[in-house]
Design goal:
Layout lengths: L6 H7 L3 E3 L6 E6 L9 E9 L5 E9 L1 E2 L1 H5 L6 E7 L8 E9 L2 E2 L4 E5 H11 L10 E12 L3 H4 L17 E3 L10 E4 L2 E7 L8 E5 L3 H7 L2 E8 L2
Parallel strand pairs: 10-14, 11-13
Antiparallel strand pairs: 1-2, 2-6, 3-4, 3-7, 5-6, 7-8, 7-9, 10-15, 11-14, 12-13, 12-15
Bound molecules: zinc ion (ZN).
Length: about 230
């Protein structure tokens, strides 16, 4: 990600891991201690009912699964992944917050898991855009969109590592101004659903920077003005 200024340096030191997307009943993520790059560290994941605040589940295990994407991105020897089987079926309908710590430090991107219709209805009731409640999309208006890639020119040595700790993927990762589009938001641009999980010094206000695998694709995207939709629920 393209960086300006010093605020980012502080964040980089705290990068200790993140959750990836849920795969069915598996919670996937990674975590490490950068001062012990080849040592597996313990991860604790807790699942809390968002409405009642009750902790319904807690897992504690080492994050030691090898992942080539981690090694390729400079995360030690790459043996820092974890996969946790979570039986969501055993829980009542509702929204659950999934939080984790690695070596005592919080993972950068807590997730929300929504089960059943109840939470969906709640989310829609909170939306002021009643006319869009059946589409699941809410227009955020027109944004300037640009592209970036893992190259030095675009990302200044960060490669695919994002400010939230996830590994950037094409057709998935966007950098945003989190005051406009909060981290973790799913937004649709030109039919593709992206996740807001990165930021950059040059991304301010109504501006989305879209991650591409190559600089050629980045150049091809250029600068555009595109309508951005928030994906609800
Ligand atoms: Zn580039």
């Amino acid at each position: 990600m393209f960086l300006i200024g010093g605020a980012f340096t502080a964040l980089a030191a705290d990068l200790d891991g993140s959750f990836d997307d849920f795969e069915g009943n598996t919670i996937v993520g990674w975590g490490w201690d950068s001062s012990l790059p080849n040592t597996g560290v313990p991860v604790t994941v807790t699942i809390t009912n968002k409405e009642t605040g009750e902790q319904v589940k807690s897992f504690h295990q080492p994050a030691v699964t090898y992942r080539s994407d981690l090694e390729e991105n400079g995360i030690g020897n790459g043996r820092h992944g974890f996969r946790i089987n979570m039986n969501w079926d055993a829980l009542a309908d509702g929204a659950y917050v999934v939080e984790g710590t690695v070596d005592g430090k919080a993972l950068s991107n807590p997730k929300t898991y929504v089960k059943g219709e109840t939470a969906q209805t709640t989310a829609e009731n909170n939306s002021t855009e009643e006319s869009h409640e059946h589409t699941g999309l809410k227009s955020l208006g027109f944004f300037r969109t640009t592209g970036y890639c893992p190259c030095k020119q675009c990302s200044e040595g960060w490669g695919r590592r994002t400010s939230t700790g996830s590994i950037a993927k094409s057709s998935h990762t966007i950098a945003v101004d989190p005051r406009i589009i909060p981290y973790g938001s799913k937004v649709m641009i030109n039919g593709i659903i992206y996740t807001a999980e990165d930021r950059g010094g040059g991304v301010k206000g109504n501006h989305v920077d879209i991650f591409f695998d190559t600089h050629a694709q980045t150049r091809q995207h250029g600068k555009q003005t595109q309508e951005v939709f928030l994906v609800l629920g």
